[in-house]
Amino acid sequence: MKPYSLQQIRQELIVLEKKMLQETERKQQSFKHIHLHQYPAAKNLVHYLTLRSEDIRELQDSLHTLGLSSLASSESHIHRQLQSILQRLGKKYLRDELDACTYEFNREQIEQKSNILFGEKTDPLTPFIMITFDASFANNYALIKNLLQNGMNVARINCAHDDEAVWSKLIHHLKRACKYTGLTCKVYMDMAGPKIRTRLMNKGKKAGRVNVKEGELIWLADNARGFKKEDIVISPNEKGLISMLKKGERIYIDDGLIKGIVEKIKKGRVAMRILRISSGKQQIKEGKGINFPDSVITIASLTDFDRACLPFICEHADLIGYSFVRTPADLLELQQAIKKLAPHPPHIIVKIETPEAVKNLPGLLLCGMRQKAFGVMIARGDLAVEIGFERMGEIQEEILWICEAAHVPVIWATQVLETLNKTGIATRSEITDASHAAMAECVMINKGDHTIEVIETLHDILHRIGAHHIKKRFTFRPLGIARNFIAAEPK
């Protein structure tokens, strides 16, 4: 197709700018409760989502052909970038008409917020490193000190495991190591969230595992009453959940290794047909995760167990991870709960691990902006199972773009250099995956026997790629997330 003329480009950009300004005005109610320091970020987020609700690929090609900015890699300052192009094309602006959200302003904002969340960075080219602690670390001060000296910036404690006695030991050893080395390290505590995990209620209950095969019919129920001895009955460990399932909906067990579909629905029970088993050991074990990607699950994100943990978390943690958050109302509930417990509560990390969280990402970001700083974690494990592994690459990019537009630091999480951590040898694919982590502000590493090697390898990869990844050029097709946000009526 023939490129647009300069006059056509000018007119297209003027129309886009008008839409941005109109949408910002229309969304003013959404800005009502945000922190004063977050106002430029909120405006830029709306500007970016306005742009991403349009298909501007032909305009981008024309801009690029004529040697002008194609608006790619401008998520953080999209309106000002558009104005800069228009200035080159002869449009005059008064000084107070120019958007103050420049590229330099954004970089300062992201750096300040990252420092608040993760501490002071020593290497500007590499993200912060978060290490997941294991209960065994409670008896291994030397290991914690070693991790700290090798580049750990944030220590992650998963509240789904162990108890306050173990957590206290881990934090004590970390503080002791910080004092000894003179290094700093933030404490991040992950709330457990809803524990949707397998509980064997009938066959295999004593052994903690049960053999299954493809094509077999198994049952989901809260108890084993009314079943035959040979029936496999699994409880999802959350009362009321079974009644939310519908015929034809998919069910995944054990990080997607077992795929099934709801075939029958009876009072208090659901029959699931096993369609696929992607594991050598064809069995379901006690305590494995269950995902319902097609179902509308309305159980609370903030559980009674989480609430019981909050006083300890507010006293000891710098950061609090919110698991399985779905809506802005979920986030507001946690904000209000921790505000009652501490005058300066931990900064919230919103974990994106459900389709609802992806869909509601703009609203979650605007709600998070009630605080001066907060972060987002791309929890790729559950998210990949929920949305489908084939969509994971696309969705994680979209989350990065939108968080960049909102000036929100991002944690890249789950299975980063996992094989290296477990075996001491990395795969080629996970090295490539790790290089993508350079687009985030922090990278989370799970526990393993080779964590020091993982930190060293990750630093090497990220330092090398850090000078290159900003040169990536993206084209803007419409985002479903953006269209849904722009189409919604102001609240």
Task: Write up what this structure looks like.
The protein starts with 5 loop residues before the first helix and ends with a helix. β2, α7 and β3 form a beta-alpha-beta unit. The chain has 491 residues and is α/β, with parallel strands linked by helices. Residues 469-474 have low confidence and may be disordered. α1 packs across α2 (39-52). The protein has three domains: 6-106 and 475-487, no CATH class; 110-194 and 299-469, Phosphoenolpyruvate-binding domains (TIM Barrel, Alpha-Beta Barrel); 199-291, PK beta-barrel domain-like (M1 Pyruvate Kinase, Domain 3). It contains 17 helices and 17 strands. An eight-stranded parallel barrel has the order 1-2-3-13-14-15-16-17, surrounded by eight helices. Strands 4-7-6-10-9-8-12 form a seven-stranded mixed β-sheet, with helices on one face. A two-stranded antiparallel ribbon has the order 5-11.
Question: What is the fold named in CATH at topology level of the largest domain?
Answer: TIM Barrel
Low-confidence stretches: 469-474
Work out the radius of gyration: 24 Å
Structural class by sheet pairing and helices: alpha/beta
**Can you tell me the CATH superfamily of the largest domain?**
Phosphoenolpyruvate-binding domains
Helix content: 40-55%
**Strand portion, in percent?**
15-25%
State the strand order across the main sheet: 1-2-3-13-14-15-16-17
Distance between the termini: 41 Å
Number of helical segments with 4 or more residues: 17
| Overall average pLDDT | 91
**What number of domains?**
3
CATH class category of the largest domain: Alpha Beta
Largest sheet: 8 strands, parallel, barrel
Corresponding CATH architecture of the largest domain: Alpha-Beta Barrel
Number of extended strands:
17
The dominant shape is: globular
